[in-house]
Design goal:
Length: 163
């Protein structure tokens, strides 16, 4: 599976669970692995120093609370345990994630799921905190800009999985 070399503990169990979650959500497990790789390098202990987002998909503190845990709770979990919360979070978007970019957008900015390449996130805060995506530096981020940045992070041999 793509990026499995970044799984540092419980590798077989983790990969099995990713496939199981993807199956239940009707998404490609490679898309979920890519999203976790981009967000946290598949590190359940990763914490964003600016936003305090934590874990495999960089849960915001408010999102962790909505899901019945906390940032501190997530940090105490193994990678496999944290996948339960990845699933709990993503299941609200089941049926809407039709492509790899939709899976990523479910994590990054759910309002953009399925909106198309021209959809623009008009938020100075989002743009300032995610300057990597604001390619034209206009403080708006389009889905197309996000796709262009993300595509650069997909190894050539796996690009066929991300049409």
């Amino acid at each position: 599976m793509i990026f499995e070399e970044y799984v540092k503990e419980n590798k077989d169990w983790f990969l099995w669970k990713v496939k199981e979650i993807a199956s239940v959500l009707s998404i490609n497990p490679e898309w979920l692995m890519f999203t976790m790789k981009f967000e946290s390098v598949i590190n359940p202990k990763k914490v964003n120093q600016i936003s305090n987002a934590t874990g495999l998909i960089q849960f915001m503190p408010s999102t962790a609370r909505e899901l019945g845990t906390s940032i501190e709770g997530l940090l105490k979990m193994s990678n496999v345990e944290q996948l339960d919360f990845v699933y709990k979070y993503l299941k609200r978007y089941k049926g809407r994630m039709k492509s790899w970019i939709d899976v990523y957008l479910a994590v990054f900015y759910p309002a953009a799921i399925g909106k198309g390449d021209n959809y623009v996130i008009k938020s100075d805060l989002v743009a300032k905190q995610n300057q990597i995506f604001d390619l034209n530096k206009d403080l708006d981020i389009s889905v197309d800009e996000i796709k262009k940045v993300l595509q650069e992070h997909i190894p050539k041999e796996y690009r066929y999985l991300f049409p």
